[in-house]
Design a protein that fits this description.
single chain, Aminopeptidase, 5 helices, globular, binds coenzyme A
Length: 165
């Protein structure tokens, strides 16, 4: 299957290459990367949860090729999920703090939007607290602009209502 992997990009720190690491990455490496980058929404994510996320979505990564003796450092991620017919969703768009501004997230998002796992969906969605501007260039609009209201029920609320064990 043609994965349409983006070409490596040149940065002042070295070349950055992209890959679909869904089936090869160690959940522990992901946990360490997200903790090191102090990503607030994954702060309590366990290895087992990472494993489950990898089982039902795709993890696209960026790795810095520079350091000969240090291997290929993980410097960017984007995760994508799709029902292949109606909706696809982007998650975990993160770039290492010292690698920001080189186009890593843009390449990962652009790739995720055309990844074969998407199938033939009608729309993409994502949630963001303060990176909204990044996504407008990819066609994303705020929910109020498309006359919808984003609603969600947290598990704790469902439990309180007796709707979940
Ligand atoms: C948001 C984030 C992923 C961007 O990564 P990046 O690799 O630096 O992004 P790019 O280099 O591809 O930048 C693309 C453009 O988006 C802009 N941009 C980057 N971060 C942005 C932010 N938080 N808000 C608005 N615009 C942003 C950049 O200025 C750049 O614009 P330019 O091309 O005109 O210079 C990165 O800042 C990050 O990891 N932030 C913390 C985690 C986070 O908030 N993720 C988003 C969750 S939805």
């Amino acid at each position: 299957m043609d994965l349409q992997i983006p070409e490596p990009i040149s940065t002042p720190k070295g070349w950055v290459a992209f890959a679909d690491e869904t089936w090869t990455i160690e959940p522990k490496e992901l946990q360490i990367f997200f903790q090191a980058e102090a990503v607030f929404w994954t702060a309590s994510r366990t290895i087992e949860q990472w494993r489950r996320l990898l089982a039902c979505s795709r993890l696209l990564t960026a790795r810095l090729q520079a350091a000969e003796d240090k291997g290929q450092r993980l410097v960017g991620t984007t995760r994508v999920w799709s029902d292949q017919a109606y909706e696809a969703k982007l998650y975990d768009v993160v770039t290492a703090v010292d690698m920001k501004g080189f186009g890593i997230a843009s390449n990962l998002v652009r790739w995720a939007l055309r990844h074969p796992t998407i199938g033939n969906v009608q729309r993409f969605v994502l949630e963001t607290r303060d990176a909204g501007e990044l996504y407008t260039r990819f066609g994303f609009k705020r929910s109020e602009e498309v006359n919808t209201v984003h609603m969600r029920a947290n598990m704790a609320d469902l439990k309180k209502l007796g709707l979940h064990e």
